[in-house]
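hey so i finally got around to running both of the ones u sent me last week. sorry it took forever, my laptop kept dying halfway thru and i had to restart like 3 times lol. anyway pasting them below in the order u listed, first the sequence line then the structure token line for each. didnt double check formatting much so if smth looks off just lmk and ill redo it

first one:
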Amino acid sequence: CTDLHTELPNRNYDYISQLFYRKALFFYQESLLYEMNNTEEITGIKSFGPDIDKNYGYDGVIYLSGLLELKYGQTEDPILRLKKLDEYKRAIARVFGLGKSSKEKPGPLLELSRELYDTFSAILKDASNVDFTPSDDE
């Protein structure tokens, strides 16, 4: 959609792109919640993607959920955002932490997970210096 927006800037393809990414974030988060609550099992699915040629499995779902949260998650409430990023940081740590001892995990997923973990760590470290208490002016 971003290519289309570049070619046809007045057609709102940028809006559609954001909408699709946010919807993907919603569905990835819902699938993880369903799995954790035993509402619906997703680990039996044969191919998780991200495309037909690559299957990163359940760990790929965790990675993509974290990436989508970072890029397209809510930004209205900074405390809630940091809480979600911290949750995903811990989940991503399990992906690449367990992957070093397992030969079955795809190398690109491990590298991408490590980079995402480092990004989460940097954001959370920067945020630890910020005071989120409301001021008297507000």
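and the second one:
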Amino acid sequence: LRYHKRTFKCHVWIALSVFDFVRNVFEAPLEIDAIFYGKYRLSIECSVIGYCSKFLELSSIGMLTVIVGERYISICHPGMLIRYYGKRAFSFTCVSFCIFYAAFWSFMPFFGIGEFVNHGEYCYLQNITKPSVVFMYKLSLLAFAVLLPVFILFYCSILTLREFKQAKERTINVFGNVYLANDCQKEEKEALLLIIMTVIMALTWVSYYTIHLVLANHAINKKVIFTGEIFSQLTTVSTPFFLILTDKGFKATLSRVFLRIFHKISFKTKRHVTVTSTQLFKINKNIKEKKYSSQYTSRVGKFTRHSEIEMDHKIQFEDVMRNVTK
């Protein structure tokens, strides 16, 4: 069960999550304006705002699905990944498919279907000209762009958790290796945490899209819209925590940064330690001896390894011959 690096997709996902968060920050005043007045104050960038919002939301969900799905394949079916695809080709295919999938579902505001629709001089929150088409569009978004990725996340996380449980039992009962069992237990905890976060994300996204389905059906209420925006902000803020809690590389970089900061602070607060001349002479002598021994072993290391292997074989052969003669 080797850990598969996924730095490229994680960096893309971080960028999408950050852009989605920035988009929500700039879009929040417009949505608050729509809550109280029912329409936005601008109409030129209406379809552009609608496209960017949907693209960032769906691409961030899809990229997280790609990361978890590739982790499941690399852990549970590593031979299939190498035999049929290759790691780089599979990663590039998944990322490109995720981007094109999000772009396809986000093009509807350019055709006058979606949350941000031009009507006269204003940009309305809901489509007042085609309510039935908007309802079908929202329903298809909920099915194919939210529920399907959430189901893949949940399925892959459960199977990965089961694989790590079986690996932990095998390493303890068959091999008796405690260190591998501890590694499997850590991975098991991370998979369980991913399942919990997936359930939380599913609840927030489903409730958010359900509220917009109610909006598309003309059941307009200020409290309902405000609740939907709260769920949207919660999902946007909570998605980057997936990477912090489940990715080893990201946690390692964070720990290095905190350790460096702590080391600098502790180094500044340390007292000055006096060292005598004899202690300095001994330290320099030890350093020179270690350098000379490391250089000597690097040169003669090949011959010493072969001689040690030959001696081991001789000792084993002598033991076998003694047992035979007895």
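quick thing i noticed on the 2nd:
The radius of gyration is 30 Å.
anyway thats it, ttyl
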